[in-house]
Amino acid sequence: MGDIVVTATRREAKLQDVPIAVTAVTGDTLAAADVSTVRSLTQVVPGFIGSRNMGVFQPVVRGVGSTGISIGDEPNIATYVDGVYQPESAANWIDLVEVERVEVLRGPQGTTFGRNATGGLINVITPDPSFDFRGKASLRVGRMRRDAGDYDARVYFTGPLSENAAADFAGLFRKNDGYIDDLVRGGTLGNQRVIDLRSKLLFEPTDNFKVVLTGEYFNQESTTNSPQPLDGNTAGRRFPGVILPTDAWQASLTEVPLLNLRRWSGALHTRLDLGSVLLETTSGYQLLRWNQTTDSDASNLRLGNFPATFNTESGSQEIKLSSATPGPFQWLVGGYFYQFGGSSFLQPLTAANPTLPLAGPTLTPQLDGRSFAGFAEGTYEVQPGLFLTLGGRYTTEKRSYSQTLNGVLRIDDAEKTFNKFNYKVGVRYEVSDKTNVYATYSTAFKSGVFNMAALSTTPVNPENIKAAEFGIKSDPLDWLRTNLSIYYYDYQDLQLQARDAIGASYILQNAANAEIYGGEFEVFVRPVADLTLRSAVAYTHARYEDFPNAQGFFPRADGGNDVVTFDASDNVMTRAPEWSGNVGFDWGHDIGNGRITFAGNLSWSSRVYYDFANIFSQPSYTLINGSVSWTPESERFKIGLWVTNLTNEKVLQTVRPGALSTDGFYEQPRKIGISIETKL
């Protein structure tokens, strides 16, 4: 099967030796499954859902995931790119332009990674520049419904600048025409244009010292935040002149929505090999500008709109010292500093009926904060094949919050400090050189958060999770790999967000507790050199406990929802399907002076609920992607045909219940196209 080296424990190790439930997907596998963004990892990673709300990426792992959309309300599934923490949900629309692999760690990572990794994390690793020149360019052209075009152009090249320096460049231009019928103005909505440019500079002045400098620019313009009412459930139904969608990929909105995002980021990595120890530093910086307007009632009548602007800036610094020589005791210690700040303009607008002008408060919140953490972890081989791991992390975080309402300062520098110690205890036993069993008990937390869309000086409490896990990783045959993990979570003070009783703005609250347990089983088979098979299944039992003050939305006969506080205890948690999984393959065969390759991926899920009362949901679904390509013997280029969402399944990315409507956004319909890739 071959070994995959991962950094899931903050040091390089073989995937099968790491006592963590982690799915590592290589760049080749991502391409074969047609996974081009972090959100679409749903199709290849068990127990993972790449949910979204408007322009906010909201990943969920094993039922754990945030619902917040405001600045400072960071997701509890952490995202890292080359070791740099990506704090803002809106900025995590990460395109996988050129990657070595993506690691998805399931379960709390509260010690070595730490920050807001309550349920797990996504770790994207891109290649460093090479001293050997190489490059490639690719173009994909596809078509969707209504003859909407889909275009994706990518380029990557790398090479030496001198004996001690090398550089690379990765560029992406992605564009799709609108695939959502505009029932008001004619034409379409849902168009998107993305530009992503990234470059690295590698400097190696000596054999034991390396510096990597990274810069990236991301720019997105789109109207993909075009919601449609589910089953016609909108308050607009109460008034004459309403136009209601009758099928998926239709929208009837007062005005064309807007979802524009610009992100600048930079990173500096250093690595110094001191012989017995390794000293590494990672510095990160991010600047985000995000503008959006979204129809709050999902109808062509002027009942609600939500314009917003978000501006954030953040920086981080980590220093890590670790053992670098073989021995029974392996260790690492480190320190982490993170500073963030941002401001917003929020104006939730509503009207009692379409004849009245939209009106609402203007909120301009300001958030600042900083976080310090120290961490350590050690693994000792107690006896041959038996390893004991102990780890801990102490975090202190301070947040300050100001709020201006209609131009008048109402909250001036509300402050709160959160301190927390998290720990991990683990044991791993090598049953044989091809089989490992492990058990861990760990904790993690997500810091308390101020509600940026409110006038409260009291933040919600931090989230806390206690997790027990048992796993088996085995390569029983040279062509077979099987990994099993089972877990139990005690999840306390969940931070949950929902639309308020007016219908445009949002509230933020703590649910008292939740219980989650389940497991995943992954199988990889390579019976012959030309064929690779992979499959995974995940079971998740996720229930709220002691949640008496949940906000419920109950459909009205005339459209919209009544907003009622109710007891959601024992209800299924949102975005936590009981069953999900995937099956994929790639098969190649030499033909004449070239090679033909077939690849496919099928992902499926049982019902997914999107509200605390378990009224609104996405029924069970299946998504199928496939491709066939031909490469000549010279391997200088590759041409192919591909299809995504082969059966044209109507799959909701999210459902947003509120007083004015229950609306949602669908995944893209079936796309069919051609591709060409050439090596430079």
From TrEMBL:
Pfam families: Plug, TonB_dep_Rec_b-barrel. InterPro entries: Beta-barrel_TonB, Beta-barrel_TonB_sf, Plug_dom, TonB-dep_rcpt-like. It is a multi-pass membrane protein. Coiled coil: none annotated. The keyword Ion transport applies. SUPFAM superfamilies: Porins. Residues 209-646 form the TonB-dependent receptor-like beta-barrel domain. It comes from the Bacteria. It is found in: Cell outer membrane. Keywords: Cell outer membrane, Ion transport, Iron, Iron transport, Membrane, Receptor, TonB box, Transmembrane, Transmembrane beta strand, Transport. The keyword Transmembrane applies. Residues 15-120 form the TonB-dependent receptor plug domain. Belongs to the TonB-dependent receptor family. This is TonB-dependent receptor.
